[in-house]
Fold these 2 entries.
Entry 1:
Amino acid sequence: GENVEQHPSTLSVQEGDSAVIKCTYSDSASNYFPWYKQELGKRPQLIIDIRSNVGEKKDQRIAVTLNKTAKHFSLHITETQPEDSAVYFCAARPSGYSTLTFGKGTMLLVSP
Amino acid sequence: NAGVTQTPKFRVLKTGQSMTLLCAQDMNHEYMYWYRQDPGMGLRLIHYSVGEGTTAKGEVPDGYNVSRLKKQNFLLGLESAAPSQTSVYFCASSYGGQETQYFGPGTRLLVL
Protein backbone atom coordinates (compact mmCIF):
# COMPACT_ATOMS: atom_id res chain seq x y z
CA GLY A 1 0.00 0.00 0.00
CA GLU A 2 0.84 3.67 -0.12
CA ASN A 3 3.29 5.12 2.41
CA VAL A 4 3.62 8.87 3.00
CA GLU A 5 6.54 10.43 4.86
CA GLN A 6 6.28 14.04 6.06
CA HIS A 7 9.03 16.38 7.24
CA PRO A 8 9.69 18.21 9.44
CA SER A 9 7.56 17.13 12.36
CA THR A 10 7.77 20.61 13.87
CA LEU A 11 8.61 23.96 12.28
CA SER A 12 9.03 27.30 13.98
CA VAL A 13 9.20 30.52 11.96
CA GLN A 14 8.93 34.24 12.58
CA GLU A 15 5.92 36.11 11.30
CA GLY A 16 6.50 37.16 7.72
CA ASP A 17 8.91 34.32 6.95
CA SER A 18 8.17 31.50 4.54
CA ALA A 19 7.49 27.92 5.61
CA VAL A 20 8.00 24.75 3.59
CA ILE A 21 6.70 21.29 4.45
CA LYS A 22 7.76 18.30 2.39
CA CYS A 23 6.18 14.90 1.76
CA THR A 24 7.30 11.84 -0.12
CA TYR A 25 5.11 8.98 -1.27
CA SER A 26 5.84 5.43 -2.34
CA ASP A 27 3.13 4.44 -4.83
CA SER A 28 3.88 5.78 -8.31
CA ALA A 29 0.19 5.32 -9.15
CA SER A 30 -0.81 8.09 -6.73
CA ASN A 31 -2.34 11.02 -8.55
CA TYR A 32 -4.07 13.16 -5.93
CA PHE A 33 -2.30 15.04 -3.14
CA PRO A 34 -4.33 17.15 -0.69
CA TRP A 35 -3.09 19.23 2.22
CA TYR A 36 -5.15 19.63 5.37
CA LYS A 37 -4.79 22.19 8.17
CA GLN A 38 -5.86 21.30 11.69
CA GLU A 39 -6.06 23.98 14.35
CA LEU A 40 -5.86 22.95 17.97
CA GLY A 41 -8.98 21.03 18.99
CA LYS A 42 -10.57 21.40 15.57
CA ARG A 43 -11.25 19.19 12.58
CA PRO A 44 -8.84 18.87 9.64
CA GLN A 45 -9.79 21.17 6.78
CA LEU A 46 -8.62 21.05 3.19
CA ILE A 47 -6.51 24.07 2.27
CA ILE A 48 -5.16 23.09 -1.14
CA ASP A 49 -4.76 20.05 -3.33
CA ILE A 50 -2.95 19.08 -6.51
CA ARG A 51 -3.45 16.40 -9.10
CA SER A 52 -0.69 14.69 -11.01
CA ASN A 53 -1.38 16.46 -14.28
CA VAL A 54 -0.05 19.74 -12.88
CA GLY A 55 3.28 20.62 -11.27
CA GLU A 56 2.27 23.60 -9.16
CA LYS A 57 -0.85 25.20 -7.79
CA LYS A 58 -1.22 28.50 -5.91
CA ASP A 59 -3.92 30.03 -3.76
CA GLN A 60 -2.94 33.43 -2.37
CA ARG A 61 -0.11 32.79 0.15
CA ILE A 62 -0.24 29.01 -0.22
CA ALA A 63 1.29 26.93 -2.98
CA VAL A 64 1.87 23.25 -3.56
CA THR A 65 4.47 21.75 -5.89
CA LEU A 66 4.63 18.20 -7.17
CA ASN A 67 7.57 16.25 -8.56
CA LYS A 68 6.22 12.94 -9.85
CA THR A 69 9.62 11.66 -10.92
CA ALA A 70 11.02 12.02 -7.42
CA LYS A 71 7.66 11.17 -5.81
CA HIS A 72 7.55 14.17 -3.55
CA PHE A 73 5.35 17.19 -3.06
CA SER A 74 5.66 20.27 -0.89
CA LEU A 75 3.51 22.94 0.75
CA HIS A 76 4.81 26.50 0.65
CA ILE A 77 3.36 29.24 2.84
CA THR A 78 4.65 32.76 2.25
CA GLU A 79 4.35 35.80 4.53
CA THR A 80 3.35 33.60 7.45
CA GLN A 81 0.96 34.97 10.07
CA PRO A 82 0.25 33.79 13.64
CA GLU A 83 -3.08 32.36 12.46
CA ASP A 84 -1.14 29.96 10.22
CA SER A 85 -0.05 28.16 13.39
CA ALA A 86 -1.56 24.67 13.19
CA VAL A 87 -0.78 21.08 12.32
CA TYR A 88 -0.56 20.44 8.59
CA PHE A 89 -1.12 17.01 7.05
CA CYS A 90 -0.25 15.87 3.57
CA ALA A 91 -1.95 12.89 1.96
CA ALA A 92 -1.80 10.81 -1.19
CA ARG A 93 -4.32 8.72 -3.10
CA PRO A 94 -3.51 6.15 -5.78
CA SER A 95 -5.43 6.29 -9.02
CA GLY A 96 -8.66 4.30 -8.84
CA TYR A 97 -8.70 4.18 -5.07
CA SER A 98 -11.04 6.09 -2.78
CA THR A 99 -8.88 6.20 0.34
CA LEU A 100 -6.22 8.66 1.43
CA THR A 101 -2.96 7.82 3.17
CA PHE A 102 -1.87 10.65 5.46
CA GLY A 103 1.53 11.78 6.61
CA LYS A 104 2.15 12.08 10.35
CA GLY A 105 1.76 15.83 10.34
CA THR A 106 3.84 18.98 10.83
CA MET A 107 3.23 21.36 13.70
CA LEU A 108 3.85 24.89 12.42
CA LEU A 109 4.36 27.64 14.97
CA VAL A 110 4.47 31.22 13.74
CA SER A 111 5.83 33.64 16.32
CA PRO A 112 4.85 37.34 16.21
CA ASN B 1 -26.70 22.43 6.18
CA ALA B 2 -24.76 21.01 9.13
CA GLY B 3 -22.15 19.16 7.03
CA VAL B 4 -20.61 16.26 8.93
CA THR B 5 -21.58 15.81 12.57
CA GLN B 6 -20.42 13.32 15.18
CA THR B 7 -22.00 12.05 18.38
CA PRO B 8 -20.87 12.06 21.15
CA LYS B 9 -18.16 14.73 21.46
CA PHE B 10 -16.47 13.05 24.40
CA ARG B 11 -16.82 9.72 26.16
CA VAL B 12 -15.08 7.82 28.94
CA LEU B 13 -15.30 4.03 28.90
CA LYS B 14 -14.03 1.31 31.14
CA THR B 15 -12.05 -1.56 29.62
CA GLY B 16 -14.42 -4.14 28.19
CA GLN B 17 -17.37 -1.81 27.73
CA SER B 18 -18.95 -1.29 24.36
CA MET B 19 -20.12 1.82 22.57
CA THR B 20 -21.17 3.17 19.20
CA LEU B 21 -20.01 6.40 17.61
CA LEU B 22 -22.39 8.03 15.17
CA CYS B 23 -21.41 10.02 12.10
CA ALA B 24 -24.06 11.84 10.10
CA GLN B 25 -23.80 13.92 6.94
CA ASP B 26 -26.43 15.94 5.12
CA MET B 27 -24.51 16.49 1.89
CA ASN B 28 -25.79 13.39 0.08
CA HIS B 29 -22.26 11.98 0.00
CA GLU B 30 -21.73 8.40 -1.12
CA TYR B 31 -18.42 7.79 0.61
CA MET B 32 -17.85 7.87 4.35
CA TYR B 33 -14.73 7.17 6.41
CA TRP B 34 -13.69 6.60 10.00
CA TYR B 35 -10.19 7.65 11.12
CA ARG B 36 -8.39 7.65 14.41
CA GLN B 37 -5.86 10.30 15.34
CA ASP B 38 -3.12 9.64 17.85
CA PRO B 39 -0.24 11.96 18.79
CA GLY B 40 2.54 11.73 16.24
CA MET B 41 0.66 9.17 14.14
CA GLY B 42 -1.38 11.32 11.81
CA LEU B 43 -4.79 10.13 10.65
CA ARG B 44 -5.19 6.40 10.18
CA LEU B 45 -8.13 4.88 8.34
CA ILE B 46 -10.17 2.36 10.34
CA HIS B 47 -13.05 1.48 8.01
CA TYR B 48 -14.82 3.12 5.12
CA SER B 49 -17.95 2.81 3.03
CA VAL B 50 -18.47 3.45 -0.66
CA GLY B 51 -22.24 3.49 -0.40
CA GLU B 52 -25.27 2.47 1.63
CA GLY B 53 -24.98 -1.13 2.78
CA THR B 54 -21.26 -1.43 1.97
CA THR B 55 -18.21 -1.32 4.24
CA ALA B 56 -14.52 -2.07 3.84
CA LYS B 57 -11.46 -2.33 6.08
CA GLY B 58 -8.86 0.35 6.27
CA GLU B 59 -5.38 0.39 7.74
CA VAL B 60 -6.28 -0.29 11.41
CA PRO B 61 -9.62 -2.17 11.53
CA ASP B 62 -9.00 -4.58 14.41
CA GLY B 63 -11.30 -4.10 17.40
CA TYR B 64 -13.84 -2.05 15.44
CA ASN B 65 -16.99 -2.77 13.47
CA VAL B 66 -19.02 -0.47 11.24
CA SER B 67 -22.42 -0.29 9.63
CA ARG B 68 -23.95 1.89 6.93
CA LEU B 69 -27.65 1.13 7.01
CA LYS B 70 -28.60 4.61 5.81
CA LYS B 71 -26.74 6.70 3.28
CA GLN B 72 -26.41 9.64 5.65
CA ASN B 73 -25.15 7.68 8.68
CA PHE B 74 -21.97 5.70 9.36
CA LEU B 75 -21.65 3.96 12.73
CA LEU B 76 -18.41 2.87 14.38
CA GLY B 77 -18.69 0.24 17.10
CA LEU B 78 -16.31 -0.89 19.78
CA GLU B 79 -17.48 -4.24 21.12
CA SER B 80 -14.97 -4.53 23.98
CA ALA B 81 -13.02 -1.33 24.51
CA ALA B 82 -9.30 -1.46 25.30
CA PRO B 83 -6.98 1.31 26.58
CA SER B 84 -5.20 1.18 23.19
CA GLN B 85 -8.41 2.53 21.65
CA THR B 86 -8.05 5.80 23.53
CA SER B 87 -7.92 8.28 20.69
CA VAL B 88 -9.69 11.04 18.81
CA TYR B 89 -12.00 9.62 16.18
CA PHE B 90 -12.84 11.56 13.06
CA CYS B 91 -15.47 10.80 10.50
CA ALA B 92 -15.23 12.14 6.96
CA SER B 93 -17.37 12.02 3.86
CA SER B 94 -16.98 12.72 0.16
CA TYR B 95 -19.32 12.92 -2.81
CA GLY B 96 -17.26 10.44 -4.78
CA GLY B 97 -14.14 8.38 -4.27
CA GLN B 98 -12.03 10.95 -6.10
CA GLU B 99 -13.54 13.99 -4.39
CA THR B 100 -12.57 16.09 -1.38
CA GLN B 101 -13.09 14.54 2.04
CA TYR B 102 -14.88 16.70 4.60
CA PHE B 103 -14.28 15.96 8.25
CA GLY B 104 -16.55 15.98 11.27
CA PRO B 105 -15.60 17.70 14.54
CA GLY B 106 -14.26 14.53 16.15
CA THR B 107 -15.06 12.35 19.16
CA ARG B 108 -12.57 12.15 21.99
CA LEU B 109 -12.61 8.69 23.58
CA LEU B 110 -10.82 7.74 26.78
CA VAL B 111 -10.71 4.06 27.77
CA LEU B 112 -9.65 3.42 31.35
Entry 2:
Amino acid sequence: QKEVEQDPGPLSVPEGAIVSLNCTYSNSAFQYFMWYRQYSRKGPELLMYTYSSGNKEDGRFTAQVDKSSKYISLFIRDSQPSDSATYLCAMSLIQGAQKLVFGQGTRLTINP
Amino acid sequence: KAGVTQTPRYLIKTRGQQVTLSCSPISGHRSVSWYQQTPGQGLQFLFEYFSETQRNKGNFPGRFSGRQFSNSRSEMNVSTLELGDSALYLCASSLGGTAARSGNTIYFGEGSWLTVV
Protein backbone atom coordinates (compact mmCIF):
# COMPACT_ATOMS: atom_id res chain seq x y z
CA GLN A 1 0.00 0.00 0.00
CA LYS A 2 1.29 3.44 -0.96
CA GLU A 3 1.91 5.95 1.80
CA VAL A 4 -0.23 8.51 -0.06
CA GLU A 5 -3.18 7.46 -2.17
CA GLN A 6 -4.68 9.66 -4.87
CA ASP A 7 -7.24 8.74 -7.49
CA PRO A 8 -5.41 9.14 -10.81
CA GLY A 9 -8.62 9.94 -12.68
CA PRO A 10 -8.85 11.10 -15.38
CA LEU A 11 -11.44 13.61 -14.24
CA SER A 12 -13.36 15.64 -16.81
CA VAL A 13 -15.77 18.45 -15.85
CA PRO A 14 -17.47 21.36 -17.64
CA GLU A 15 -16.15 24.89 -17.33
CA GLY A 16 -17.46 26.66 -14.25
CA ALA A 17 -17.91 23.48 -12.21
CA ILE A 18 -16.55 22.99 -8.71
CA VAL A 19 -13.77 20.43 -8.71
CA SER A 20 -12.88 18.30 -5.70
CA LEU A 21 -9.55 16.49 -5.57
CA ASN A 22 -8.60 14.24 -2.68
CA CYS A 23 -5.78 12.29 -1.10
CA THR A 24 -5.59 9.91 1.80
CA TYR A 25 -2.45 8.99 3.68
CA SER A 26 -1.33 6.44 6.19
CA ASN A 27 1.52 8.16 8.09
CA SER A 28 0.02 10.19 10.93
CA ALA A 29 3.36 11.96 11.40
CA PHE A 30 2.87 14.08 8.27
CA GLN A 31 2.50 17.70 9.32
CA TYR A 32 2.77 19.72 6.12
CA PHE A 33 0.51 19.30 3.14
CA MET A 34 0.86 20.69 -0.34
CA TRP A 35 -0.91 20.69 -3.66
CA TYR A 36 1.10 21.00 -6.87
CA ARG A 37 -0.14 21.56 -10.40
CA GLN A 38 1.77 20.06 -13.30
CA TYR A 39 1.11 20.95 -16.90
CA SER A 40 2.10 18.55 -19.63
CA ARG A 41 5.89 18.27 -20.01
CA LYS A 42 6.49 20.85 -17.27
CA GLY A 43 7.71 20.64 -13.70
CA PRO A 44 5.24 20.79 -10.77
CA GLU A 45 4.37 24.24 -9.40
CA LEU A 46 3.18 24.82 -5.86
CA LEU A 47 -0.47 25.83 -5.52
CA MET A 48 -1.28 25.52 -1.84
CA TYR A 49 0.66 24.85 1.36
CA THR A 50 -1.10 23.94 4.62
CA TYR A 51 0.15 23.11 8.07
CA SER A 52 -1.75 20.55 10.18
CA SER A 53 -5.56 20.46 10.10
CA GLY A 54 -7.75 23.24 8.80
CA ASN A 55 -8.69 25.17 5.69
CA LYS A 56 -6.75 27.59 3.54
CA GLU A 57 -8.17 29.66 0.73
CA ASP A 58 -6.36 31.37 -2.14
CA GLY A 59 -8.55 32.84 -4.82
CA ARG A 60 -10.51 30.06 -6.49
CA PHE A 61 -8.57 27.38 -4.62
CA THR A 62 -9.33 25.98 -1.16
CA ALA A 63 -7.22 23.36 0.59
CA GLN A 64 -8.59 21.31 3.47
CA VAL A 65 -6.73 19.03 5.83
CA ASP A 66 -8.39 16.58 8.21
CA LYS A 67 -5.61 14.92 10.16
CA SER A 68 -8.02 12.82 12.22
CA SER A 69 -9.20 11.13 9.03
CA LYS A 70 -5.82 11.36 7.27
CA TYR A 71 -7.57 13.04 4.36
CA ILE A 72 -6.79 16.19 2.38
CA SER A 73 -8.75 17.94 -0.33
CA LEU A 74 -8.32 20.65 -2.92
CA PHE A 75 -11.39 22.49 -4.21
CA ILE A 76 -11.35 24.56 -7.38
CA ARG A 77 -14.26 26.96 -7.82
CA ASP A 78 -15.38 28.39 -11.16
CA SER A 79 -13.04 26.02 -12.97
CA GLN A 80 -11.42 27.27 -16.18
CA PRO A 81 -9.97 25.41 -19.18
CA SER A 82 -6.56 26.75 -18.07
CA ASP A 83 -6.93 24.65 -14.90
CA SER A 84 -6.59 21.51 -17.03
CA ALA A 85 -3.48 19.81 -15.65
CA THR A 86 -2.36 17.03 -13.35
CA TYR A 87 -2.80 17.85 -9.67
CA LEU A 88 -0.46 16.23 -7.17
CA CYS A 89 -0.81 16.16 -3.43
CA ALA A 90 2.40 16.05 -1.41
CA MET A 91 3.27 15.74 2.26
CA SER A 92 6.26 16.11 4.52
CA LEU A 93 7.20 15.52 8.09
CA ILE A 94 9.16 18.71 8.54
CA GLN A 95 8.43 22.25 7.40
CA GLY A 96 10.56 23.11 4.42
CA ALA A 97 11.80 19.55 4.06
CA GLN A 98 12.64 18.67 0.51
CA LYS A 99 11.75 15.03 1.06
CA LEU A 100 8.16 15.13 -0.09
CA VAL A 101 5.91 12.11 -0.48
CA PHE A 102 3.63 12.55 -3.47
CA GLY A 103 0.33 11.06 -4.49
CA GLN A 104 0.00 9.55 -7.93
CA GLY A 105 -1.58 12.73 -9.34
CA THR A 106 -5.07 13.32 -10.77
CA ARG A 107 -5.35 14.32 -14.41
CA LEU A 108 -8.04 17.00 -14.68
CA THR A 109 -9.65 18.32 -17.86
CA ILE A 110 -11.98 21.33 -17.86
CA ASN A 111 -14.17 21.34 -20.95
CA PRO A 112 -15.21 24.74 -22.40
CA LYS B 1 14.35 35.85 -11.31
CA ALA B 2 15.48 32.72 -13.13
CA GLY B 3 13.92 29.44 -12.06
CA VAL B 4 15.48 26.04 -11.54
CA THR B 5 17.37 25.11 -14.70
CA GLN B 6 17.96 21.54 -15.73
CA THR B 7 20.10 20.22 -18.56
CA PRO B 8 19.81 18.39 -20.81
CA ARG B 9 16.04 18.47 -21.32
CA TYR B 10 15.90 15.30 -23.39
CA LEU B 11 18.33 12.47 -23.84
CA ILE B 12 18.41 8.89 -25.07
CA LYS B 13 20.87 6.37 -23.65
CA THR B 14 21.57 2.71 -24.22
CA ARG B 15 21.16 0.09 -21.51
CA GLY B 16 24.38 -0.28 -19.55
CA GLN B 17 25.57 3.26 -20.16
CA GLN B 18 25.74 5.97 -17.54
CA VAL B 19 24.20 9.43 -17.54
CA THR B 20 24.83 12.71 -15.74
CA LEU B 21 22.10 15.30 -15.29
CA SER B 22 22.72 18.85 -14.20
CA CYS B 23 20.70 21.29 -12.10
CA SER B 24 21.19 24.97 -11.37
CA PRO B 25 19.02 26.08 -8.46
CA ILE B 26 17.38 29.45 -8.03
CA SER B 27 19.95 32.05 -7.02
CA GLY B 28 20.36 32.04 -3.26
CA HIS B 29 18.88 28.58 -2.79
CA ARG B 30 21.17 26.19 -0.96
CA SER B 31 19.04 23.07 -0.87
CA VAL B 32 18.67 20.91 -3.96
CA SER B 33 16.76 17.68 -4.27
CA TRP B 34 16.12 15.22 -7.06
CA TYR B 35 13.00 13.25 -7.91
CA GLN B 36 12.16 10.55 -10.42
CA GLN B 37 8.74 10.66 -12.08
CA THR B 38 7.30 7.67 -13.92
CA PRO B 39 3.73 6.82 -14.97
CA GLY B 40 3.72 3.76 -12.74
CA GLN B 41 5.37 5.03 -9.56
CA GLY B 42 4.68 8.75 -9.77
CA LEU B 43 7.09 11.21 -8.17
CA GLN B 44 9.66 9.58 -5.94
CA PHE B 45 12.33 11.28 -3.86
CA LEU B 46 15.90 10.39 -4.77
CA PHE B 47 18.09 12.54 -2.52
CA GLU B 48 18.64 16.01 -1.12
CA TYR B 49 21.80 18.08 -0.83
CA PHE B 50 22.42 21.09 1.36
CA SER B 51 25.73 22.91 1.50
CA GLU B 52 27.43 20.16 -0.52
CA THR B 53 26.29 17.43 1.91
CA GLN B 54 23.70 14.77 1.28
CA ARG B 55 21.02 15.44 3.88
CA ASN B 56 18.46 12.83 2.93
CA LYS B 57 18.18 9.83 0.65
CA GLY B 58 15.28 7.89 -0.84
CA ASN B 59 14.97 4.18 -1.53
CA PHE B 60 16.91 3.89 -4.74
CA PRO B 61 19.83 1.57 -5.54
CA GLY B 62 23.41 2.75 -5.32
CA ARG B 63 23.51 3.23 -9.09
CA PHE B 64 21.84 6.55 -8.42
CA SER B 65 24.20 9.12 -6.97
CA GLY B 66 24.51 12.85 -6.75
CA ARG B 67 26.63 15.71 -5.60
CA GLN B 68 26.42 19.40 -4.95
CA PHE B 69 29.04 21.99 -5.66
CA SER B 70 30.03 25.02 -3.64
CA ASN B 71 27.86 27.25 -5.86
CA SER B 72 24.85 25.02 -4.99
CA ARG B 73 24.66 23.58 -8.49
CA SER B 74 23.98 19.86 -8.43
CA GLU B 75 24.49 16.84 -10.61
CA MET B 76 22.98 13.39 -10.43
CA ASN B 77 24.47 10.31 -12.03
CA VAL B 78 22.91 7.01 -12.93
CA SER B 79 25.30 4.21 -13.77
CA THR B 80 24.62 0.95 -15.59
CA LEU B 81 21.33 2.19 -16.97
CA GLU B 82 18.36 -0.13 -17.07
CA LEU B 83 15.21 0.14 -19.18
CA GLY B 84 13.26 0.93 -16.02
CA ASP B 85 15.32 4.06 -15.45
CA SER B 86 13.44 5.75 -18.28
CA ALA B 87 11.71 8.64 -16.53
CA LEU B 88 11.43 12.35 -16.02
CA TYR B 89 14.09 13.45 -13.55
CA LEU B 90 13.14 16.57 -11.66
CA CYS B 91 15.37 18.86 -9.67
CA ALA B 92 13.93 21.09 -6.95
CA SER B 93 15.47 23.86 -4.90
CA SER B 94 14.64 25.86 -1.82
CA LEU B 95 16.32 28.21 0.58
CA GLY B 96 16.96 25.28 2.91
CA GLY B 97 18.37 26.07 6.30
CA THR B 98 16.57 25.21 9.52
CA ALA B 99 13.41 23.20 9.39
CA ALA B 100 11.58 25.89 11.35
CA ARG B 101 12.03 28.50 8.66
CA SER B 102 8.73 29.66 7.25
CA GLY B 103 7.90 30.13 3.60
CA ASN B 104 10.47 27.59 2.53
CA THR B 105 8.82 26.92 -0.79
CA ILE B 106 10.20 24.18 -2.97
CA TYR B 107 10.51 25.09 -6.66
CA PHE B 108 10.82 22.48 -9.37
CA GLY B 109 12.62 22.65 -12.68
CA GLU B 110 11.08 21.43 -15.92
CA GLY B 111 12.97 18.16 -15.73
CA SER B 112 15.23 16.01 -17.86
CA TRP B 113 13.49 13.36 -19.92
CA LEU B 114 15.64 10.23 -20.00
CA THR B 115 14.85 7.36 -22.35
CA VAL B 116 16.86 4.14 -22.02
CA VAL B 117 16.78 1.84 -25.05
